[in-house]
Design a protein that fits this description.
It is built from 7 helices and 3 strands, in the order H-H-E-H-H-E-E-H-H-H. The chain has 170 residues and is mainly α. It has a domain of 115 residues: Winged helix-like DNA-binding domain superfamily/Winged helix DNA-binding domain (Arc Repressor Mutant, subunit A, Orthogonal Bundle), CATH 1.10.10.10. A 3-stranded antiparallel sheet has the order 1-3-2. It is globular. This is MarR family winged helix-turn-helix transcriptional regulator.
Length: 170
């Protein structure tokens, strides 16, 4: 039974959204300030710098970022104009390679990213709070759908039997 959120549930959800927005904004501002990169540019460069020889096929890059082909293509075009990366086409294969300028920008941004994330985690969350977040956010297991019949059959599902929230951490 879905129904509406209770006042407490709605309040908690809004708080989580607000904290995520605030943290993302701080990290984005630090990356922009340090290296004049958007978060999207930073994420593309992060994938390329981590790849063997600083190169990935465009399809691999899209899959790694969880982006559709169109979004990635537009982003790569903008980044190519800024000389952060190069694209080569060989038949149906589109290879994307980070440039020296892209590596330098990424390194400047990465330092700012690490400092901002650490500041947010260390200054605003206790060890116990960080551990609670880590227990809530478990790597990539699919959350099974609960049918109405299952919900009716066992209305007192315990916290241990409920699927955990699954998010990718990098």
């Amino acid at each position: 039974m879905a129904g509406e959120l209770t006042n407490g549930e709605a309040s908690t959800w809004r708080l989580i959204q607000r904290l995520a927005d605030l943290a993302t904004g701080i990290v984005e501002q630090q990356i922009r300030s340090a290296a004049d990169l958007s978060t999207a540019e930073f994420e593309v460069l992060r994938c390329l710098v981590a790849a063997p020889d600083g190169q990935l096929r465009q399809a691999e890059l899209a899959a790694g970022l969880g982006w559709d082909k169109s979004r990635l293509s537009h982003q790569l075009t903008r980044m190519e104009h800024r000389e952060l990366l190069e694209r080569q086409k060989s038949g149906r294969i589109h290879a994307v390679t980070v440039t020296r300028s892209g590596v330098q920008k990424f390194e400047m941004a990465d330092g700012a990213h690490v400092a901002a994330v650490r500041m947010l985690l260390q200054e605003h969350l206790s060890t116990a709070e960080r551990e609670a977040l880590q227990q809530t956010a478990v790597l990539e297991e699919p959350v099974p759908a609960v049918t109405a019949r299952e919900e009716t059959a066992s209305p007192e599902r315990t916290a241990a039997s409920r699927p955990a929230l699954r998010v990718r951490t990098t």
